[in-house]
Amino acid sequence: MTSDDKSTRHTARMVRKKAVIDAAIEQANQEKGLLLVLTGNGKGKSSSAFGMMARALGYGMKVGVAQFIKGRSDTGEEAFFRGQANVEWHVLGEGFTWNTQDRERDTKTAQAGWAIAQRMLRDPSIQLVILDELTYTIKYGYLDLTQILADIAARPAMQHVVVTGRGAPVALTELADTVSEIMDIKHAWRAGIKAQPGIDL
Ligand code: ATP
Ligand code: MG
C-alpha cells in the first residue's frame, strides 16, 4: 500500500469514527446530579475525588467534603482546599479502626459524621459533595446502608456526590451513575517505601 492509500484509508476511518462519536454526543443530552463511586484496592480513589473537586471549584461551584474514618488533618489536600473559597471541609473520623479499637466510639463518631453529611446532602447550594472513605463505615456496620442510600437518593436534583473507599456495597454501585474500580497492580508501600507527602497524603 502506498502512503497515499494509507492516508486515504486513515481519513475515511476518522470520518466514520467522528460520525459515531457525534451521534453519541447528540444522544448524551441529559443533565443531572451524578453519583460516582470510586472503589477497589488500588491507589487513586481519594485523589481522583479531589481532582474532581479542583475541577468543580474551577467553575465556581461550592463543594462539601466529609472524610470518614481518617482522623488526620495533616493531608496536603486539606491544607490546600480548606483555605479556598466555596469549600466546606469536615474530618469526621477518629482514625483507622485498627487504631481506635473501640467499636462503640467509632459508631458514635460515624453517626455524628453522617448527620453532617445529611445536612450537605439537603443543601442545594452545595453542588458537589465528597464522602471520602464512606464505604468503611458501612462495612464495619457503623452506619446503616439503607439510610445512606435514602439520603443520597433524596439529594437535590443537580447535586453531584462522590463516594470513595474499598469494597463498595453492590446496592451503592447500583444506585450510582458512574462506578470505577481501581485495581492494585503495584504499590510502593509494599517495597518498603513510606507514604510520601504530595503523593500519598
Ligand atoms: P489516594 O488517597 O492516594 O488516592 P486511595 O484513596 O485510593 O489513595 P486509600 O485506601 O484511601 O486509597 O488509602 C490511602 C493511603 O493508602 C494513601 O497513602 C495511598 O497511597 C495508600 N494506599 C492506597 N492503596 C494502597 C495499596 N493498594 N497498598 C498500599 N497502600 C495503599
Ligand atoms: Mg482514600
Beta-strand percentage? 5-15%
What's the tally of helices? 8
Structural class: alpha/beta
Count structural domains: 2
Kindly state the mean pLDDT as a whole number? 93
The stretches of 5 or more residues where confidence is low (pLDDT under 50) are none
Main location: cytoplasm
Domain Cob(I)alamin adenosyltransferase N-terminal: 2-25
Subcellular location: Cytoplasm
Protein name: Corrinoid adenosyltransferase
Task: Describe the SSE topology.
Blueprint: H1 3-27, E1 35-39, H2 45-58, E2 63-67, H3 76-81, E3 87-91, H4 97-100, H5 103-121, E4 128-132, H6 134-139, H7 145-153, E5 160-164, H8 170-175, E6 178-181
Task: Provide a quick synopsis of the model.
The chain has helices spanning 3-27, 45-58, 76-81, 97-100, 103-121, 134-139, 145-153, 170-175; strands at 35-39, 63-67, 87-91, 128-132, 160-164, 178-181.
Explain what the structure shows.
By secondary structure, this protein is of the alpha/beta class. It is 44% helix and 14% strand. The chain is built from eight helices and six strands, in the order αβαβαβααβααβαβ. Strands 3-2-4-5-1-6 form a six-stranded parallel sheet, with helices on both faces. Residues 45-46, 133, 164 line the site of magnesium ion (MG).
